Amino acid sequence: MIAGDPCRGLEGDSYAQTFALEAREESLILNMGPQHPSTHGVLRVLLEMDGEYVLRAEPVLGYIHRMHEAMGQNRAYLQFFPNMGRVDYLHALAWNWAWAGAVERLAEIEVPERAEYIRVITTELNRINSHLLWWGAYLLDLGAVTPIMYAFEDREIVMDILQEITGSRLTYAAFRFGGVVADISPGFASRTREFLDRMPGRLEMYRDLVTDNAILRGRLKDVGVIDEMMARRYGATGPVLRGSGIAYDVRRAEPYGVYNRFEFPIPTYSEGDSLARYQVRMDEIETSLAIIRQALDGLPEGHFMLPDAPRGKWKPPAGESYFAVEGARGKIGIYLASDGSEIPYRVKLRSPSFSNLSLFPELAEGTLLSDAVAILGSLDLVIPEIDR
After folding, report:
1. Is residue 338 within 8 Å of 314, Cβ to Cβ?
2. What gap in Å lies between CA 252 and CA 326, rounded to an integer?
3. Burial class (CB in 10 A: 0-12, 13-18, 19+), 73
4. 305 strand-pairing partners
5. First vs last Cα of the chain: how many Å apart?
6. Are 380 and 329 in contact (CB under 8 A)?
7. Model confidence over 33-60: pLDDT tens digits?
8. Bridge partner residues of 45 (DSSP)
9. How far lies 220's CA from each of 54, 145, 239, 281, in Å?
10. Which of 178, 282, 336, 386 is 20 to 30 A from 20 in CA distance terms?
11. pTM summary value
12. H or E element that contains 128
């Protein structure tokens, strides 16, 4: 840089300077995020641009790193539950289940049947809420402002229902080792059934308003195509994988809780594009509605918590365990190692968003910047999961 150069002071930070070392002549290095609306506040992607076309993309991680794994290794087992609501604030109950399941498997704790059904009902309601927020925010990223209003109208109903038995509206910490923190309230079942009856009409309206819209389909069809091999190479899971035609779902592949008692399809689309991933999530809302209805119909009487469940600074036996669940973004896995003390020796979190984001640089290469936004949104990333 020479004195008087008009670009002086615009070299960027160390990430940008390193990224620029491989830049071609006359290309532009551009930051998308961490304050860009489509990166939802905490994801930064470095782009090398030729006009409106993306030559290279590289995510920069760590803007919301909270050291969740390290925190899991310096507190009692029970005290780690609130962290689960912060790793993925949109499907917190799936992470609750993964942590509870890992500890229960390690200590061979039996969960009462009624608690298993309540876990299914609340986790599927939470999955619907996650997909609804993704739907509204994704369309907002693409320039459609109205749909998120409809999505939030439905989300408010679910949040009211879940608040009744969890005590919170977003960052849930409602599971315990050996059950759930509270039984369902007297009006819970009837309010949930009202929501189940409401949603088919709402989904039909969403289809007429958005899914069948020619402009939306033009924005998503054949954009960001992930074939089967590419999905497997990056360890993609969840709707991203099922949008590439692979019917892998932890609820079926590694059944946990009482999911093996319910009939439900695994929605897949073979096209592998952004539209396929969109359609998988919309179909999955219907799947969750069907599971919840079956769970409510079959809800048994009994305890919602094991009478002699571990409490306080309890010590599990020494050993290792791994437990996986199907989250709204894909496979959530927790590896746990215990040395027999009241503090976990090692906690390792497997988050779906980390693997799914790793697809983005290859997908974005050669696309228009506007298509890169559509691709990024179709991955449905929750950044605290990535920066765990």
Report:
1. no
2. 9
3. middle
4. 179
5. 38
6. yes
7. 787 766 766 889 999 999 999 999 999 9
8. 32, 59
9. 17, 17, 15, 14
10. 386
11. 0.94
12. helix 113-141
